[in-house]
Amino acid sequence: MADRYLHLTGTAPGKFLTRKLGLPQPARLRRWTLETPALTGPVVHLTAGESAVTEELAAALTATGLAVTARADRPAALVLDATAVRDTTGLAAVHAALHPVVRSLAPGGRIVVVGVRPSPDDHHQAAAQQALEGFVRSLGKEIGKGATVQLVRVDPRAVASAESTLRFLLSPRSAYVSGQVIELTAAAPDPVTDWAAPLTGRTALVTGAARGIGASVASVLARDGAHVICLDAPQAQEDLVRTADRLGATALPLDITADDAAARIAAAAPDGLDVLVHNAGITRDRRLANMPADRWAQVVDVNLDSVLRTTDALLKTGTVNRGGRIVATASIAGIAGNNGQTNYAASKAGIIGLVRSLAPRAAADHGVTVNAVAPGFIETRMTAAVPLLIREAGRRMNSLAQGGLPVDVAETIAWFAQPASAAVNGQVVRVCGQSLLGA
After folding, report:
1. Is pLDDT of 199 > 70?
2. Can you tell me the distance from the alpha carbon of 333 to that of 374, in angstroms, rounded to the nearest whole number?
3. Count of helices and strands (H, E) across the chain
4. pLDDT of res. 439
5. Which of 36, 201, 231, 302 has the most CB atoms lying inside 10 A of its own CB?
6. Interior angle at CA 162, CA 161 and CA 163, nearest 5
7. Cβ-based neighbours of 373, under 8 Å, separated by 6 or more
8. Torsion on CA atoms 326, 344, 356, 135, rounded to nearest 10
9. How many CB atoms lie within 10 A of CB 373?
10. What is the largest CA-CA distance in the chain?
11. Which of 5, 32, 344, 415 is an active site residue?
């Protein structure tokens, strides 16, 4: 369903009226297209204090293909190296670096603060680096004009591993991602021959791929060069085949909760999977006092138990190839909770627990990363059926004051899936426009 309010605020009368009434004024977001694949304008590289990784970060920024400079009148992005911030004096340097230039950021621009993990041994450093999280989340809520703000924590020994993350965050692909904290490991990236098609030669499987977010994920992965296996329930076979045919993909009608689901997936991918995306999910909403056991069980079985069982089986059999990527779909409901969704929120919070526990072991034992996206209000057939006032609240209650699109979730998953994203592991990234709900 079209966002009529967003359209209204893009007109001169609508802009005037909403400004007078003090209503939200969302900026139309610029997403990736063939015609506009990158930000327009330079990236200003700033430093707070005397950083030991300045040259390495400059090299990683230059590798993105964007024009990097120390000063510009209307920059498309500001990247602040805050890795040297160790105390409150360092925090003053953060203010001194960004305060004079933040107003100059172009509409739809990007701000990325680069820090390090808070130290368990130095409480002054830990306080200063943790302070960057509050700073970034607050700046994201006030920056406006469709701009986004993120914090990326790097390993100072492996700043080059941040390239794929910087490429994503400093591009139109991350239009609906803001206020996020992303921690990178020191894992070396696998080489990418062609950044226009980084998944060439790789096989990806997407569950729940017949329509909506799943179909968009399949489309973006195919755009990036992957051969995609589209999986969905047999009752969605007509839509599933239509999606697969459009993408030159393989359709796999299959109940993901079936006992033999993992075996049938393995049979459909004789050369193994390089990307496994757990997107299938259902809702059976009711308040707990009115929720029978079958409605609880159906949601947990599809949204969580099937993910646990198939992931375990596919890792054990080696179906997920070394260097592979596993991505699961959580939700802000699993972070903030939601009225009438105790079953759904429990299943999505369970996905977050799965990712955090499995990620380090999967990397060590199988060379596989495990991450999750947590969508907020995404414009789908399901949200179009939500009552008007609730739908409008969902759209406006985020820093970008609008709903996201399925492609926003898909672009985030495609970043996780890239061979160069080996350092992105154990992360839960919200695709919610920095929702005002949850952390």
Report:
1. yes
2. 8
3. 16, 13
4. 59
5. 231
6. 95
7. 327, 328, 329, 330, 409, 412, 413, 416, 428, 429, 430, 431
8. 110
9. 29
10. 62
11. 344
**DSSP structure string for 2-40:** --HHHHHHTSHHHHHHHHHHT---PPPP----SS--S-S
Q: Yes or no: say if 178 and 140 are a contact pair by the CB < 8 Å rule.
A: yes
What's the CA gap between 188 and 161, in Å, rounded?
A: 6
Nearest 5°: phi and psi at 346? -60, -40
Is-above-0.85 flag for pTM?
A: yes
Helix boundaries (H) for 191-326: 212-223, 237-247, 261-268, 293-300, 306-316
**Which tokens belong to 32?**
């990736």
- pLDDT tens sequence across 119-136: 999 999 999 999 999 999
Q: Taken in order 412, 418, 424, 425, is the CA torsion positive or negative?
A: positive
Per-residue pLDDT tens over the stretch 205-222: 999 999 999 999 999 999
Side-chain half-sphere exposure of 104, counting CA atoms within 13 A: 16
DSSP string, 368-417: -EEEEEEE-SB-SHHHHTS-HHHHHHHHHSBTT-S-B-HHHHHHHHHHHH
Give the DSSP per-residue string, 358-379.
HHHHHHHHHS-EEEEEEE-SB-
- Residue 75 CB partners (closer than 8 Å, separation 6+): 41, 42, 43, 44, 69, 101, 104, 105, 106, 109
Assigned token pair, 25: 């004024």
Q: Which amino acid is at 382?
A: M
176 is catalytic: no
The band of 248, judged by pLDDT with boundaries at 50, 70 and 90, is very high
